[in-house]
Amino acid sequence: MARNSIAKSRESRDHEESRNPSWYVPVMLGFIVVGLLWVVVFYISGSTLPIGSIGAWNIAIGFGIMFVGFIMTTKWR
């Protein structure tokens, strides 16, 4: 009996410690949405926005921002 209760308390403590903070999911989704919006705005504006002087590198920036969000999904618990 005592071993079972110790094991259960250990499991619940490990589960609580492995949870992400409350800000994690909104930040993760924020990166994905901002990156997507960056690429969409670039295409809709005809390559003049968000930063017109860097041209197609806007796509790399947008995908880079989205990539950060997708990397965060691997750590989400």
UniProtKB/TrEMBL annotation:
It is a multi-pass membrane protein. GO terms for cellular component: plasma membrane. The chain crosses the membrane at residues 21-45, 51-72. Belongs to the CrgA family. This is Cell division protein CrgA. One of its GO terms (biological process) is cell division. Keywords: Cell cycle, Cell division, Cell membrane, Membrane, Transmembrane, Transmembrane helix. Its main location: membrane.
